[in-house]
Structure formats: C-alpha cells, structure tokens
Amino acid sequence: MTPSARVLAAKILVVDDQEASLDLMEQILHSAGYKSVLSTSDPAEVYALHRLHQFDLILLDLKMFPMDGFMVMDGLKTLERDRDLPVMVIAAEPELELRALDAGAGDFVAKPVQIDEVLIRVCKMIELRLMELARKA
Fold first, then answer.
1. CA distance linking residue 27 with residue 70, whole number of Å
2. How far apart are CA 76 and CA 71, in angstroms?
3. Sign (positive/negative) of CA torsion 41, 42, 47, 53?
C-alpha cells in the first residue's frame, strides 16, 4: 500500500515515555515517507501540542507516568468534542485493547509492533481522519 501525498503530509504525534519506542516509531514513519512527525515523552504536553498543531493522528502508549494514555484520551475528548479521537494506541498490554477502544481510541496495535501492520493502520486512520475533516468543512 502506497500512501498518497496528502496522507504522507499528515501531522502525526508519537507519545511514549520510553525514548527507544519514540525513536523506533519516528524511524518507521520517516522511512515510510511521513513528513510531519513530532514526538514527546511527556504525556502532559499532548493537549497543548494538539491545540497548536491539530494532529491528524496521535500514536499513544498507555503505560506512562505521571499520566497514562487513558487520562490523555479523556483530556483530548474536550478538544475533539464533535469528532472521533485521532488516536491509535500502541501498547505492550494486548489485554487493554477493548478498554482502549472503548475509551475512544480509533485503533490498537500491540507491541512489539509489526512494521507493515503499523504502516497500514496508520495510513488507514489518516485517510479516515482526512475524509472526516473534509466532510465537516
């Protein structure tokens, strides 16, 4: 699957308190051609960053400190009142998948990630987000 130029230009935020995980996801996305990828290891920064950049996709870990991914999603709901959350959870706890989806995540990928799977799911989520934004414009 080759993403379109619009998809590759999408704004993506990677949130994980483990630097190695941040580096890996950034490398995967940049290697695939994504041009606008930011990251933070501080979950408390997500709201301000999303307000500023209006990300098309946020890749979010669940187990972080001092805020976990569920708390981040709760806060994002106040910014995305009339839209679905642009969140894909990437977590090492597959047993949390249903809880994450119920909390508002659009998708869930278990660590360790399969690169092809992540790239396909990222592309699909961004395509859906861009269609949603176009429909509401």
1. 25
2. 9
3. negative
CA–CA distance, 47 with 120 (Å, rounded to integer): 26
Q: Which amino acid is at 103?
A: A
* pLDDT in the model for residue 1: 66
Supply 85's token pair: 């959350």
Q: Locate tokens 């930011």: which residue?
A: 38
Look at strands 11-15 and 107-110 and give their pairing: unpaired
Which of 10, 8, 30 has its CA nearest to residue 132?
A: 10
Tens digits of per-residue pLDDT, 18-50?
Answer: 999 999 999 999 999 999 999 999 999 999 999
User: Which residues, at least 6 apart from 92, have a Cβ–Cβ distance to it below 8 Å?
Assistant: 63, 110, 111, 112
SS3 108: strand
Burial annotation 72-107 (CB, 10 A radius, 16+ → b, else e): bbeebeeeeeeeebbbbbbbeeeebbeebeebbbbb
